[in-house]
Design goal:
The chain has nine helices and 16 strands. It is of the alpha+beta class. It has two domains: 2-94, no CATH class; 101-367, Endonuclease/exonuclease/phosphatase (Deoxyribonuclease I, Chain A). The strands form three sheets. Strands 1, 2, 3, 4, 5, 14, 15 and 16 form an eight-stranded mixed sheet that branches. Strands 6-7-8-9-13-10 form a six-stranded mixed sheet, with helices on one face. Strands 11-12 form a two-stranded antiparallel ribbon. Helix 2 packs across helix 4 and helix 3 (49-72) crosses helix 4. It starts with a helix and ends with a strand. The mean pLDDT is 94.
């Protein structure tokens, strides 16, 4: 009750997310885990045939039990599902309504740090999907089996500002906060709310004082609210005005001319915010860097790829040759960036060990005098 009074949006959104867990977990097991490729060295398959077959047998038995329940009590079962869905949506809607500026703020234990000169920034799409989508869209094991090592990578870099993409599961956001609360002053989760579909999946955390606001892209569809978060950093908590804007985003994923046109529109919307002060734009742009708009200067110029479809190819059994440089950290205006560092997290393309299908980028930026 105390948390509901102090952090009502956080409490309600986490509660509604928890209520969906039985449904998303069941879907993950029946739709994906049951049909995982029969290779004990891939994904989260058990280490021997007997335990793996036993695991899949239990999934089948659970599915049959659910089907039997539906057969003998279809009205009650269907009514329970519908009522649960309505309750979840109502709680979720109230949580989003109580947010401030399109995000949920959580205070860390670290006192706000001064940022007088350079600012180290990091961006990473961690493929924090639930409901089995991590298999289908990333070719990766569940985030719960990767999260400890994901957090270790973030801790190793010790950036002043971190923006993550695809933190769609509230439990993942809460675990990250719990593990990093002594190293950061502010956390921002549940960015870009969406009542019917998915929010953006963005998460941001900072060591210094900042003003924060989210912006929804104008050309979204109902399924997911793509957008960007603006973190206006202050040199110290005592200063009223920010000195640099850090924008984190995850842009439209579609291919072809239509997808390119939508991303260009989204970049133009970001440009209106970048024109107001020295700005860094970072995230998963879903666009190769040679197609980036001219007003942005790419910080990552290396040859190593930032995103791969090799893992999804191993899941589907179909060769997926696409290896891309679609994540970046770019600057606009009076900002210099040091050489951008890519952190290898593909782990030799081993599906049991890879941390994500995207690799994190880290650089240090400074506003020119």
């Amino acid at each position: 009750m105390n948390s509901l009074c102090v952090e009502p949006d956080r409490t309600l959104l986490n509660f509604s997310s928890g209520l969906t867990k039985p449904f998303t977990r069941a879907f993950e097991l029946v739709r994906f885990r049951l049909f995982s490729p029969l290779d004990l060295n891939q994904f989260d398959n058990n280490p021997n045939c007997i335990s793996e077959l036993s695991h899949r047998t239990l999934i089948v038995l659970g599915t049959l039990l659910a089907a039997y329940t539906l057969m003998i009590a279809p009205v009650y079962t269907f009514s329970a599902v519908v009522i649960s869905g309505v309750v979840i949506k109502a709680i979720r809607s109230l949580g989003f309504y109580l947010q401030k500026d399109g995000s949920t703020h959580v205070s860390g234990n670290l006192p706000e740090q001064s940022l007088p000169g350079e600012v180290k920034v990091m961006t990473w799409n961690v493929c924090g999907l639930s409901g089995g989508m991590h298999y289908q869209l990333g070719g990766l094991i569940p985030w719960r089996k990767r999260v400890d090592r994901i957090i270790e990578k973030i801790q190793e870099q010790d950036a002043d500002v971190v923006v993550l993409e695809e933190v769609f599961d509230a439990d993942l956001a809460e675990i990250i906060i719990a593990r990093l609360k002594n190293q950061y002053a502010h956390f921002y989760i549940h960015l870009n709310p969406n009542l019917l579909g998915l929010p953006s999946g963005g998460m941001a955390f900072t060591k210094g004082a900042c003003n924060v606001k989210t912006h929804d892209f104008h050309n979204n569809d109902w399924m997911i609210t793509r957008g960007f978060v603006s973190l206006d950093l202050k040199r110290s908590a005592q200063e009223a005005d920010p000195f640099i804007r850090i924008i984190g985003t995850h842009m439209y994923q579609g291919y072809g001319a239509k997808g390119h046109a939508k991303r260009q529109e989204q970049f133009e919307q970001i440009r209106t915010q970048a024109s107001e002060m020295p700005t860094v734009v970072m995230g998963d742009f879903n666009m190769e860097r040679d197609q980036m708009p001219a007003w942005l200067n790419n910080s990552y110029t290396g040859s190593d790829i930032t995103c791969t479809n090799v893992f999804t190819g191993k899941w589907t059994g179909k060769k997926q040759p696409n290896e891309e440089i679609i994540d970046n950290i770019a600057t606009a205006g009076n900002v210099d960036a040091s050489k951008c560092q890519l952190i290898d997290v593909f782990e030799g393309y081993r599906t049991k060990e890879a941390l994500s299908d995207h690799q994190p980028l880290v650089t240090t930026v400074r506003v020119r005098a």
